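user: At home tonight, take the chain set out below, taking as long as you need, and be ready to discuss the fold:
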Amino acid sequence: MERQIQKTHKTLFFTVTSDAENAEAKQFRISSRMLWVFVLLICILIGALIGFVCYESKAIKDRKAYLTMHSQEMEKLEQERTVLEQKNIALESEVAEKDELIYVLSEAVNQKTQMENQLTEQIEKQAIPTEFPLTGSATMEEVSGENLTCVFLATEGAMVIATANGIVTAVNNDVEYGYNVWVDHGNGYVTIYRNAGEVKVKQGEAVTAGTTLILTDENSRKLGYQMMKNNEYIDPMEMIEISG
């Protein structure tokens, strides 16, 4: 196929012929202005196509860069999540250990408190004058006077002993009995031991239940025993626990 361009008075002629023997030549006419418009449109289309291709190429690169950055961020977040999970597991383990330690300490405190309460009760009980004031056996003669004195006749060789824990607050001469020993038990109770034997304690001395206060002999077998509660005399026999 052959094309011939003829220019006559600013008009372009296109002649189109065929290779066939009997083919007729066809001629097209177009003005130069229309040709330039056509060429301009072709250029605009080619430019638009090139711009579109460039834009799409840049968009694809930006998309790839965004996906890469997003993937890196996701990987970083995943690593941080893994670290946080490990820290959380460690914290849970530490909390469990702390809870166990707190439980052990709580049990120890409870046991200590219980032991302290028992010890306090035992100490308080040991300070209540319920013991018999003599070793060995004795007979009670009477409870006499306004001061409710229990008079005991001890067997030979008996000892006058403290009936509870306390502090010796006085050792005095006694007109009727020879000596008297006062023991303050620190809980409102005070006991008084009156006898003519050998006094073995002195004022200010701490004594416990069973501590020897006075040694008796054949001439000092008589014991006068008194008890006060909150500065008032009470009957000692109401407090003494006699066994056997």
